[in-house]
Amino acid sequence: MDFDETPEQRALRDAVAALGRRYGHGYYVAKAKSGGRTDELWAEAAKLGYLGANIPAEYGGGGGGITELAVVCEELSAAGCPLLMLVVSPAIAATIIARHGTEEQRRTYLPGIADGSMKVAFAITEPEAGSNFHRLRTVAHRDGDDWVLRGNKCFISGLDSADFVLVVARTGDEGRLKPALFLVPTDAPGLSKSKLEMEILATESQWLVYLDDVRVPAAALVGEDPDVGLPALFAGLNPERITIAAMGIGTGRYALGRAAEYARTRAVWGRPIGSHQGVSHPLAHAQIQVELARLMVARAAALYDAGRDLEAGTAANMAKYASADAAALAVDSAIQAMGGNGMTTEYGVATLLGTTRATRIAPVSREMILNYVAQHVLDQPRSY
Ligand SMILES: Cc1cc2nc3c(=O)[nH]c(=O)nc-3n(C[C@H](O)[C@H](O)[C@H](O)COP(=O)(O)OP(=O)(O)OC[C@H]3O[C@@H](n4cnc5c(N)ncnc54)[C@H](O)[C@@H]3O)c2cc1C
Asked: How far is the CA of 253 from the centre of ligand 1 (A)?
């Protein structure tokens, strides 16, 4: 058992942290408030090889695993720049394509994702199918060599900045879920979108997506067999949970760092407020929760990279649960320690309330994780 990162991983962490510091939370907030995108940071991260950290070297990536991509997600978040598209494009889409795509798909998509010139969004959620994806209604039917997709998706992050969207559709009837994944160009005829207004300060918007008989060629189907879509889908969900958990850890670190600095210097009764245990203990408690969650993220990533998918699934769920709670606690505790300044834009902590709160719901809610652990770890009857 080795709790140390390799020298390469430490170097990656330091380098990503340095890049994040050059941009910082002020940059992120200004972009989010103006409806802008973090294109400069994205391009620089791509150039330095961070976006493709988990993509095989033969397709233009860094040849690392989810461990390395999680480091990138954590460190940019720790600098106050939580880039959600890292989770969607390199973690979900690239993993699915690398593991289950055809050779032609790997050559077509992976180099672009790695060098930042291509983004792929991910669309599974539907108005009638959130936690219960067995109720997916988006259908794909064959028409000659083509596939024709029809249905609606919601909460699709970053669709406006994506070149393709990886759509999960059913090819079977309603009784039996046979999901298949399709790489659909976001400008395909029949695909339209409308913005879902959210109370989250973030640089990625959420979108409703309408697929109105969208025709794609056979080569848009991920892999060659529409009947093996389920393993392909699951291949992307664990990296999604691990990297979103890593972002939560980074955000927690950022918030606690801000609050600790504030508590060391702010004096209300003639000495720093951090000398009052009523201020320092909640921060210390949150710090412990963040560190515990961080261990679980590292373990989940290590299991995933070792190909131990079943164990990685449980660990990824636990890591995501622990990280979401720890990040929400860290942000809330930081705000409390900073008093009124905790709620100002200038001090840059309350700006994270929406994103951290949302990670207790998405991409999988804490209740569904508790269901999973109760059923699969504690061997309880399925409750739903
Ligand atoms: C910021 C953000 C970004 C997102 N990005 C994407 C994206 O890019 N692509 C995408 O496809 N989706 C995305 N989503 C959607 C997200 O995955 C869903 O919101 C999530 O899966 C929950 O589904 P739901 O919102 O339909 O909630 P519901 O399924 O309606 O659940 C509502 C509540 O009931 C609880 N609940 C439901 N079933 C049970 C049960 N059996 N037992 C106990 N409790 C239960 C849930 O835990 C939840 O608290 C995003 C969501 C958000 C908020």
From this structure: 26
| Cα 186 from Cα 194, distance rounded (Å) | 13
Residues 6+ apart with CB under 8 A from 56: 63, 98, 110
- The best mutation among 365, 368, 369 to test binding of ligand 1, ranked by most ligand atoms within 8 Å of the C-beta, falls on 365
What pLDDT, in 10s, does the model give residues 305-343? Answer: 999 999 999 999 999 999 999 999 999 999 999 999 999
Its pTM surpasses 0.70: yes
d(CA 203, CA 38): 7
What pLDDT score was predicted for residue 26?
Answer: 98
Q: How far apart are CA 118 and CA 162, in angstroms?
A: 7
- As a whole number, mean pLDDT of residues 259-272 equals 97
Query: Which residues are paired to 149 by β-bridges?
Result: 140, 214
Looking from the CA of residue 129, the nearest atom of ligand 1 is 26
Would you state the structure tokens that stand for residue 165, as one six-digit string? 């969207």
pLDDT 10s digits, 181-214: 999 999 999 999 999 999 999 999 999 999 999 9
Q: How far is CA 320 from CA 31, 67, 236, 300, 308, in A?
A: 27, 14, 14, 10, 18
Q: How far is the CA of 366 from the centre of ligand 1 (A)?
A: 10
Q: Ligand 1, closest atom to CA 364?
A: 21
Q: Which helix (H) or strand (E) holds 277?
A: helix 277-305
Residue of the nearest CA to atom 38 in ligand 1?
Answer: 131
H/E run at residue 139: strand 139-143
DSSP 149-207: EEEEEEEEETGGG-SEEEEEEE-S-TTS--EEEEEEETT-TTEEEEEE--S---SS-EE
CA angle 80, 83, 85 (to 5 degrees): 175
